[in-house]
Amino acid sequence: MTLPVPASPGPQPANRQLTAFVWALLVVGLMAVIAAGVREIWISSERQEVRPLPIYGQIPDFRLIERDGQPRTLADCQGEIWFAAFFFSSCPGPCPVLSSRLAELAQAVGRTKGRVRVVSITVDPAVDTPERLRAYAQKYGAGKNWWFLTGPLPEIYRIAREGFKLAVEENPPETVAQNGKMLHSTKIAMVDGQGRVRGYYNGTDADLLARVLPDLGDLMRESREVSSK
Questions:
Q1: CA dihedral in degrees (81, 68, 159, 206; nearest 10)?
Q2: pTM of the model
């Protein structure tokens, strides 16, 4: 005769109460951890400090001519953040890519309502007259927040080498046909409202904006803090 197998006893009332209590503690603890994490993230974002940017040098005073025929000086940039690069309109090398990147940058900083501008300085002023620069600027859809400057070549050499610490020189005659008349850096410099260089960027990089905009945000916050003191 087969005896029936007794059923397993279910949890006793005391055990059920203990289980419910343990689960309640776990839920409360989990909610506390989540709340503490959210609070810490909030506090961290509130106390976020401006990331200090290096100072690479001071731009000397200058007087160059914009495509509208009017002079521009360092004083005209006082209190503004600006991005500067060197180019020439007949450049067969990287200048078209550089100008395309600057066009993207000029469009992006246009949302700052005049607080940030872009400046392109020609290294071939004998060819790049204001009239020629107007045509070049139109080709890239440049607005008022993007200057195109020309002037005496010795002055441009001085600004590039002493201020921006960037290379500019004439190409050897035997390479002009292939590389163009001038050799110049394709770096873009970020300059603060006091005329100090605060960053350098490869002007032909496809991800230029991703590199530039975080630094620009830090510099703009720095400028606000300085002006509020």
A1: 60
A2: 0.77
